[in-house]
Amino acid sequence: MRRRRRKKLASTLRSDVPKPKYPNHIWSMDFLKDSLANKRKLKVFPIIDEYSRKCYSIEVDTSITGKRVCEALNRVAQEQLVLPEIIIIDNGLEFVSNALDQWAYKRGIKLFFISPGKPIENCYIESFNGKFRDECLNMHWFLDLLQSRRIIEEWRIDYNTERPYSSLGYLTPEEFLKQENEKITAITPKESASFVKLTMVQ
Prior knowledge:
Layout: E1 26-29, E2 32-35, E3 41-49, E4 55-61, H1 66-80, E5 86-89, H2 98-107, E6 110-113, H3 123-135, H4 145-161, H5 173-185, H6 189-192
Parallel strand pairs: 1-5, 5-6
Antiparallel strand pairs: 1-3, 2-3, 3-4
Helix pairs in contact: 1-2
């Protein structure tokens, strides 16, 4: 008889879910699934900053591994010159992989795993996913991978730059993040170090 392999889970102590206190304090990541017109599966991987609600990236492909997750994070770090202190994720196989664990350890980033079966503990990314699915994934019929990437990227840019949110004082994520960064640059370098973490990635 075939032996059923147990799913690997993150072995971390349970603690209260941390709340974002400043830009790039906490990021959230998750996976969504969709399909192309030819019925081929589509995997979508967004990365958001919980404090500003800015979506830094949405990776789109037919398959995304733990190594690909690290590559996406490296690309965001190189483009934005920032990395978070904490990343909140679920217990998916891509997130409990050795690749992501080693990537986070080398950069001093804490991975916070939500409790299995409790997506509400990752409420910021769940709220984003709801908007993303209703306004983009459910509204388009993707003919191929190239088209899906173009449409999803256009939606991401619109989300960041064109739509104000009441939770951000009726600013867009980009406007809110710019405002917060201006506050940070107005204080002393020693104080600002506790707010922003600049990390260059090789």
